[in-house]
Amino acid sequence: QLQLVESGGGLVQAGGSLRLSCAASGRSFSSYAMGWFRQAPGKEREFVATISWSGGITYYADSVKGRFTISRDNAKNTVYLQMTSLKPEATAVYYCAAGVTSRASNSYYYWGQGTQVTVSS
After folding, report:
1. Spatial CA neighbour of 88 closest among 14, 3, 2
2. What is the spatial distance between Cα 105 and Cα 38, in angstroms, rounded to a whole number?
3. Residue 78 and residue 108: Cα distance in Å, rounded?
4. Phi-psi category of 65—alpha, beta or left, where left has phi over 0 and alpha has psi -120 to 50?
5. What is the DSSP letter of 57?
6. CA separation (Å) from 101 to 15, 92, 115?
7. Per-residue pLDDT of the chain (121 residues; tens, 9 = 90+)
8. Where are the alpha helices (DSSP H) in 16-108?
9. CA dist., res. 71 & res. 81, Å (int)
10. Is the Cβ–Cβ distance between 90 and 117 less than 8 Å?
11. First-to-final CA distance of the chain
């Protein structure tokens, strides 16, 4: 079992930056790929970024490529999402998840409760 808790969300102006964190507790964090997904009001949950268990492989949604960076610290059981040049359309609840390296949400077994990110124009 793995418990995931996101933090770092908040209100930011367009063009600003935020860093989300996801702290894991339980066994074998370093065995899992970690992903970030987001869900805006009235929309389906969508893939944002993923990182392999070693950190050697990362994938990003086209909409965030070049502006968001996913990273992990296995010694701290934490995964991060650095978000820069934020746009209002990034407003959503952001979720971290643990599973296999994939853009598909059904490849992830454990999910956090989410953290709200609001980008004002």
Report:
1. 14
2. 11
3. 16
4. beta
5. -
6. 29, 22, 22
7. 899 999 999 999 999 999 999 999 987 899 999 999 999 999 999 999 999 999 999 999 999 999 999 999 999 999 999 999 999 999 999 999 999 999 999 999 999 999 999 999 9
8. none
9. 7
10. yes
11. 40
pLDDT at 26: 82
Q: What's the one-letter identity of residue 92?
A: A
Residue 115 to residues 6, 53, 56, Cα–Cα distance (Å)? 6, 22, 26
Instruction: Please identify which residue in the block is written with the tokens 């770092």.
Output: 8
pLDDT given at position 96:
98
Say which amino acid occupies 22: C
Sign of CA dihedral 101, 57, 84, 81: positive
